[in-house]
Amino acid sequence: MKISKFLLLLSVIAAACTPSEKKETATEQSWPFQLMTLDPGHFHAALVQKVQLPEINPTVYVYAPEGPDVQDHLNRIRGYNTKENDPTHWVEDVYSGPDFFEKMIEQKPGNIVVISGNNAKKTHYIKGSVAAGLNVLADKPMVINPDDFQQLIEAFDIAEKNKVLLYDIMTERYEITTILQKELSQIPAVFGELQKGDTEHPAISKESVHHFFKYVSGNPIKRPAWFFDVTQQGEGIVDVTTHLVDLIQWECFPEQVIDYKKDIEIQKARRWATELTPSQFRRVTHLDAYPDYLKKDIIRDSVLNVYSNGEINYTLRGVHARVSVIWNYEAPEGAKDTHYSVMRGTKANLIIRQGKDENYKPVLYVENTGDMSGETFLSALKEAIAGLQDKYPGVAVGEFNGKTIIDIPEKYKVGHEAHFTQVLKKYLEYLKNGHMPEWEVPNMIAKYYTTTKAYELSR
Fold first, then answer.
1. Among candidates 118, 213, 177, 107, which has minimal Cα distance to 366?
2. How far apart are CA 127 and CA 148, in angstroms?
3. Helix (DSSP H) and strand (DSSP E) numbers for the chain
4. How many CA atoms, within 13 angstroms, populate the side-chain half-sphere of residue 141?
5. How far is CA 74 from each of CA 45, 107, 184, 439, 443, rounded to the nearest angstrom?
């Protein structure tokens, strides 16, 4: 069915019209970009719209099946439109029905498709959208198994042929401690060279801890039941690890093309489950019973077994790397999702910690591991930080619990949700230029080769 157009502001009522009518109206306006949201089932779809950008038409076309997923998405947008500070002014025009995907391809009222939802369908949506000549901004992961990986390679070929841009949402590139870890790793006077490491002591390691129950935009999260089905959401080893593998490529070999056929070797991969009780499942989904598709994963006492955890040991151009993702039910009091990372150089280790000692906020430590005296090393570090002032004014060398850290002004600590707007701005920049850097597409392919090959090996 077609849901009539409505304005998600209390003060305005908009007239209903069809997407095809709106397409004609939109072309008369000055906005160069027009969003379409396809089957939004994950809250990341809404976070793309948390801030309103002037280049984007405030009317967004939503194509989705009827059900709670699309209603939850609309409720989140309504929340952004009615917030006290800097409210947005989105108008959500919704088409719902079993032919929603075909209807979007037929009508094409926009030029950017935002895809963030059920990952079992995502690669199909991506390939069909670029084949229709539409730009795609997709949430991670774009693929969750080896078969999808082959489809993704074809999708990138089609996108190039049709002169459209396919891009995934890598928010963690915009986290300030990670940015500075990358910057310092490129300064030989401080870091030296990246070590090669070995399987037990990798040169670069990243660990991410997430939680099924948490707060997003100030509200307790509600997750769809399919989020806990690894055949729809994907196992942990192909989901959040996407971010970690991306960061390793981005930090170790910045702006360099990675050839997945030559540069990557998966050594070990493993998976393990997180157990959820019926009451925990009810709290996070608002459902009183497991749907039938989850019954295959139920073990003793109606406990749900979710393979949301994974670890990959691999080499990238001979550099040993390890990524690990862990999902718990709920964070400790005062804690949030956390990130741990270490890059080992011949002169220093660059370590991001986000534990209890850091008040669950990321802190970048710099450890002297070379032959320099403490005084000489500190002098070299201060000189390196002085050289970054044009890019990051106010960043300084500091001390925390007797250890050397990078003191980062609060203005850079914008938080995870703000990173979605930063990704969107970068994507719009690429669209304006008509192309992405030459390394982006091959490195996306390399990233998903790593996760899907590890998935295969872990089983």
1. 177
2. 10
3. 13, 18
4. 34
5. 10, 21, 42, 36, 33
For residue 450, what pLDDT band results from cuts at 50, 70 and 90? Answer: very high
Q: How many CB atoms lie within 10 A of CB 367?
A: 16
Angle at 262 between CA 256 and CA 265, to 5 degrees: 105
What is the value of pTM for the model shown? 0.92
**pLDDT (tens digit, 9 = 90+) per residue, 166-193?**
999 999 999 999 999 999 999 999 999 9
What are the domain boundaries of the chain? 2-168, 173-418
Specify the CATH superfamily of domain 173-418.
Answer: Dihydrodipicolinate Reductase; domain 2 (3.30.360.10)
For domain 2-168, give the CATH superfamily.
NAD(P)-binding Rossmann-like Domain (3.40.50.720)
What whole-number distance in Å separates Cα of residue 319 and Cα of residue 196? Answer: 4
Specify whether the CB–CB gap between 199 and 413 falls below 8 A. no
What phi, psi does 70 have (nearest 5°)? Answer: -70, -35
